[in-house]
Model the fold of this input.
Amino acid sequence: MSNEHFWAVIPAGGAGTRLWPLSRAGSPKFLHDLTGTGRSLLQATWDRLEPLTGAQVLVVTGVAHIDAVARQLPGLPADQLLAEPSPRDSMAAIGWAAAVLEARDPEAVLGSFAADHVIGDEEQFRECVSSAVEAAADGHVVTIGIEPTHAATGFGYIEMGETLGAGPARAVAQFVEKPDRERAEAYLATGRFRWNAGMFVVRATVLLDLLAQWHPELAAGLRTVASEPSRLAEVWPGLEKIAIDHAVAEPAAAQGRVAVVPGGFGWDDVGDFASLGSLLSDADGLPGVRVLGDADRLRVLDSTGVVVPGTDRVVALVGIDDVVVVDTPDALLVMSRERAQDVKGIVDSLKAQGRTDLT
Done:
């Protein structure tokens, strides 16, 4: 199968609550430049897919972000930007794009790639995607399994089975949920497990037909929305809220319908400020201090950590190690880097107090 039928689908959703107060519901992380390259995560996703797809890209985002996405991606045709009336999880978003593509091109193959991930070796990434497109030709759902760099407990894992054909695709033996550290270390010791980054390559019709096996009403609703766009507001609220992993990938793997292409290109989902710090380099003259923004606003004495200066204020650090400081006009976050995952608790408490202006 040639790449002429290949389309990239970019689900651009989520609020990135563990990156608060930088990322918020009204300005989520995929709209931000988090790597200091001058391109947002969404734009970087477009940039690395364009050599494979050209303008054959569908972006699915929330109604609140349509204008911002359109501004950041001026090369994206208006009819390839789909606005979800409300969040219904990844199956509805990706399935809607699949139904739109199925109607346009019965041979369409889609690759779903989140808008907020960072990839190291982009050429190797594209080689993996091309291999996945080939493996999808025979009706497999193909995922790209990331080579683990440590025993992460924040990701799901994929167990690889036998090699399919000439490779590099391999059968998926099973998907496993986020493990504790002991199980994660056991997974790595076998050499058979890869991180599940939620990247899926599959023929659009195959995805919807598989969905129809286990969630027929959801599949029918998505095809209705694609064929009758005027019914979007009517049909969308009744669609089942479920992730693509649970809706299709896991049951299809049990039927031997899922393959994995191993990817060693370096990947990060920028899930929190500890992760963000690992993607940045030390600021000039400030060893151990990672800065996203204007380092001239920092004054540092015997300190290390991650700093995001987002106002005109000077940020001064004295005698503290592995700190995270995020300064925005209406909220200031200060925490230890080891507690980076716990920021979500602050966001939850603000929501409980009705402070949507801050979340």
